[in-house]
Amino acid sequence: MNFLAELRTRLHGALADLTETPDVYTQMLRPTQDGRFGDFQANCVMALAKQRGASPRDLAAQIVASLEVADLCEPPEVAGPGFINFRLKTDRLAAATREIAGSERLGVAPVAAPRKYIVDYSSPNVAKPMHVGHLRSTVIGNSLYRILKFLGHVVLSDNHVGDWGTQFGMIIYGYKHFRDAAAYQQEPVRELSRLYRLVNQLSDYHTLGNDLPKLRETLAQKEQAAVTADAAAAAQPKDKDLQKAAKKTRSDVASLKDEIASALKKREIVDSDAVLKSLAESHPQIAELARKETAKLHAGDAENNRLWHEFLPQCLAALEGMYRRLGISFDMALGESYYNPMLAGIVEELTKSGLARESDGAICVFSKTSEAPFIVRKKDGAFTYATTDLATIRYRVETLKADAILYVVDARQSEHFALLIETAGRMGYDRTEFKHVSFGTIMGPDGKPYKTRSGDTVGLEGLLDEGVERARQIVDENDNQKPNPELSPEQRALVAETVGIGGIIYADLHHNRDSDYVFSWEKMLAKTGDTATYIQYSYARVNGIFRKGGIDPAPLRLKPPEIQLGAPQERTLALQLNRFGEALADVTVDYRPNQLTQYLYETANAFAGFFENCPVLREEDEALRQSRLLLCDLTARVLKQGLELLGIGVAEQM
Ligand code: ARG
Questions:
Q1: Taking 80 as the threshold, does the pLDDT of residue 452 lie above it?
Q2: pLDDT for 318
Q3: Does residue 9 carry a pLDDT above 80?
Q4: Which among 281, 317, 284 is positioned nearest to 129, based on CA atoms?
Q5: How far apart are CA 24 and CA 44, in angstroms?
Q6: pLDDT of 130 strictly over 90
Q7: CB 423 within 8 A of CB 355
Q8: Which atom of ligand 1 is nearest to the CA of 134?
Q9: H-type alpha helices, 372-510
Q10: Considering only CA atoms, which residue is closest to atom 11 of ligand 1?
Q11: pTM (2 decimals)?
């Protein structure tokens, strides 16, 4: 049973006569951080009393008097300024624990009102290898998908791959002019991504070359301005605005210098390489010509469409390998190209209804709250990312009948999603929940977005390999330490894959998704602390108990024995095991998987406390031994199920 939800319902009843919005107040009933205050605490009375001009303690007493919780709790206590503390009856808790031990779903009831969710996640731009930046969307999206589904919602995952953008023009241009036929034959995707990088590099060479004089001119002006601003600031040291202005111009100068230095470096790389240099010289219009290839593709040019149809399946297949390793499969992967035939219709509808209008040759929707226009057709006639997303909404709402759409996308796209959601509402899609589930950036140890030492993005494939390699060392060390090592080389390899990849996934999910976080192998693979490794080890340790005792847990589940919660650590563990449903519900409030990682971490901790203090196999009282075995088995099941909902596996033996 979800005790939290049940107590909130009871409290709701007691508040019904006191306020018109009891829900606001029942949400303030929460699990306590400290067992001395009971298991749950309501701190809503102070707010309610203030509103009614009553004494909080009196009001608390009045609420307690009308609360009907005797079947669940000891009599609730009023504490401090007006807190109400609830302590579950231990026999009730024991009975509930026994009940969940006998349930497939570990006591988590399916939601009463299932909704249809579309989870839009991963969604890389194809034809470029996946890099570390794609990790967050992929793992956050996958865990939300799994959790919502487990809770009984109807959920479709959609990989909205970028398969129609400018990168295809670049690849097509590269393929037509620079391809190495033998390399393409052998490893097509590697060759395509080489071509993409080459065309990008050569276009940058010219674009930057063209931009440099302008940049230098701007720098000279800014430097001049900085001299003036510094002088003004020095003359009036107390004037905060002047100080601020001087600081701002100086930082503008610094970032312009950076920009110029990085442009020079990029040009230098080409200049100092005879082959690149001669390619650059023989393709001076490359940027423009690559754009034309994209335009031709979009306009239906036969040759470019043939190439696109040839390239795309190979690019998708390359992604597939990565998804398989991460244990991910999608219900749909309708890429941007799928919506191409619907784009003109969307723009027409927006224009007809007056939502969009022409501005500077482009067609835009102007927001009510933001300065930036939402461009749905560019001056040159091209449709945009925005147009595609609007068409996607129409399809998801009208054809797929979605009640909610989650976009698991980098926070840097916040403006796009704010405008998208606003526009969708104005188009009449106001019965669907649209949510940008945004997330921060993965940082390197230097506090800047995580890059390799040479400044390239970190490839996802290599990252997973390194995680597994490092995990292998840990697994080896751990097993070699034992008097009799238990694992064969094959088993060790399997465990390393589970621990390495699980570690990477968990490290990502356990951060508040809005924050940036620093990538650290040491932290993520630590055997103690808030890591997958710790939880996976806890799981394996429970299994070890059953293995050592030669005990099959299956009969325990079929006919759960009576549970005894005499020791405080037993009670704490049992309470924690009963909170699985609460944790999952917490995830869905604002789509935050870290609510679940935290729960699993606390569960592993509760188990450690129990295991240290309560003998299991050595317990002589048979009934108590059975009760403890059941707690062990239930712990293992909750940890395993919880990790699985995060997209993380377990090993029976580590
Ligand atoms: N392909 C995009 C990118 O890599 C992300 C797409 C996210 N989903 C969406 N419906 N816009 O930036």
A1: no
A2: 87
A3: yes
A4: 317
A5: 9
A6: no
A7: yes
A8: 4
A9: 385-394, 414-426, 460-481, 489-509
A10: 389
A11: 0.90
3-class DSSP state of 48: helix
209-253 pLDDT per residue, tens = 999 999 999 999 999 999 999 999 999 999 999 999 999 999 999
Q: What is the DSSP string of 288-304?
A: HHHHHHHHHHHTT-HHH
Q: Integer distance in angstroms from the first to the last C-alpha of the chain? A: 32
Q: Tell me the pLDDT tens digit for each residue of 368-378.
A: 888 899 999 99
Task: Name the residue with the closest Cα to ligand 1, atom 4.
Answer: 124
Single-letter amino acid code for the residue at 262: S
594 token code pair: 């870290």
Question: Residue 380: what pLDDT?
Answer: 85
**Tokens coding 522:** 């040491």
Which residue type, as a one-letter code, is found at position 601? Y
Half-sphere exposure at residue 6, Cβ-oriented, CA atoms within 13 angstroms: 17
Q: For residue 174, with 0-12 CB atoms within 10 Å meaning exposed, 13-18 middle and 19 or more buried, which class applies?
A: buried
Nearest in space to 654 (alpha carbons), one of 474, 435, 467: 474
Residue 453 scores a pLDDT above 90: no
Q: How far apart are CA 323 and CA 315, in angstroms?
A: 13
- Beta carbons of 199 and 286 less than 8 angstroms apart: yes
Measured CA to CA, the distance from residue 341 to residue 354 in angstroms comes to 22
Ligand 1 interacting residues, C-beta cut-off 6 A: 120, 123-125, 160, 162, 389, 392, 407, 409
What's the gap in Å between 161 CA and the centre of ligand 1? Answer: 7
